[in-house]
Amino acid sequence: MNADIEWGSLPFGYYPTDYNLRCTFRDGKWGEIEVSQSETLNIHMAATSLHYSQEIFEGLKAFRGVDGKIRIFRMRDNAKRMQDSARGLLMEPIPTELFEEMCVRAVKLNERFIPPYGSGASLYIRPLEIGISPRIGVKRADEYLFVVLVTPVGPYFKGGFQNTNICIMREYDRVAPQGTGRWKVGGNYAASLAASHKAHEMGYSAVLFLDPKEKKYLDECGPANFYAIKDGKYITPKSDSILPSITNMSLMQLARDMGMEVEQRHITVDELESVSEAAACGTAAVCSPIGRIDDLNTGKKYQISKDGKPGPITTEFVRKLEGIRQGELPDTHGWITFVE
Ligand code: PLP
Ligand code: COI
């Protein structure tokens, strides 16, 4: 029996579910997986995650398909990225099998919270790793806790699939040029809060951050990558300070499948003059089409959408991506794991 939830109006937020899974790395090895019904963690007050931000996370989704089956999208890629993040902060990488087993079990145990097919909602899986050894000197922990929680979510940007406006703001960077932007580190999000808050207060849905070294090239769009369509080509920033988005990788593949050229390269702010579509893409955002981009420092306004509607290529991307995730289209690239 499904949980009694208004699936169609779910926000992107935390909604309690029945179980979460935990596993501790101690004495040089990962222990037994623990199934918990508690929503809290009991950790040492001097844990490295609390003081020195040894904290990394992931985000992926499970879907109920047209055939009633449960599918998780590109789980292995999230496992790999989390290992990269762990290495970036000298944390303990989580073995792929452990990551996958805990994600699958968390989905199964909370099956009644998987939104029904066609509701537009999905089950968001949030793996989290934290350093738990007490330290006062700035040192890595030698004990780590890995938690997988799940929560049903609706669209990340209010209103779902429709254009929103974003802004460029030069007085904040979320990451440093050779810093932690390429990893999914909690601190990056802390560093983005002030800029995002300011943007939201001005009515924008997100900040399009520029490369932190030269402030010349587009980097990424709040908690999502950025892409645009220019002369029929898919263009997306190449940068050391952005997160390698699994959604973006998938869109690049879909674009190639659709016969489009794909360019991963530096994109200057001026180039926004000549793009026909632009969007923020990510697990939470899916493809969120951009109407206009305002450069708050120069006063320039880049009107991307001419008719106020999401562009045809972005619309097609969403149809394809959602189709694969919900079993309406064949999974030709091996992106799906079925949860039996
Ligand atoms: N960039 C940032 C900063 C993010 O937080 C996310 C979300 O995970 C993305 C990009 C998109 O990545 P993915 O498509 O793997 O969810
Ligand atoms: C995601 O897309 O999974 C994200 O991580 C975005 C966010 C809510 C941090």
Structure in words:
With 340 residues, the chain is α+β, with helices and mostly antiparallel strands. It has 6 helices and 18 strands. The strands form 2 sheets. Strands 1, 2, 3, 4, 5, 6, 7, 8 and 18 form a 9-stranded antiparallel beta sheet that branches. Strands 9, 10, 11, 12, 13, 14, 15, 16 and 17 form a 9-stranded mixed beta sheet that branches.
Task: Give the topology, please.
Blueprint: E1 20-26, E2 29-30, E3 34-36, H1 48-52, E4 55-57, E5 60-64, E6 70-73, H2 75-88, H3 96-109, E7 122-131, E8 144-153, E9 164-168, H4 186-201, E10 206-210, E11 218-221, E12 225-230, E13 233-237, H5 246-257, E14 262-265, E15 277-282, E16 286-295, E17 301-303, H6 312-325, E18 336-339
Parallel strand pairs: 9-10, 9-16, 13-14
Antiparallel strand pairs: 1-2, 1-3, 1-8, 4-7, 5-6, 5-7, 6-18, 7-8, 10-11, 12-13, 12-15, 15-16, 16-17
The structure holds pyridoxal-5'-phosphate (PLP) and 2-OXO-4-methylpentanoic acid.
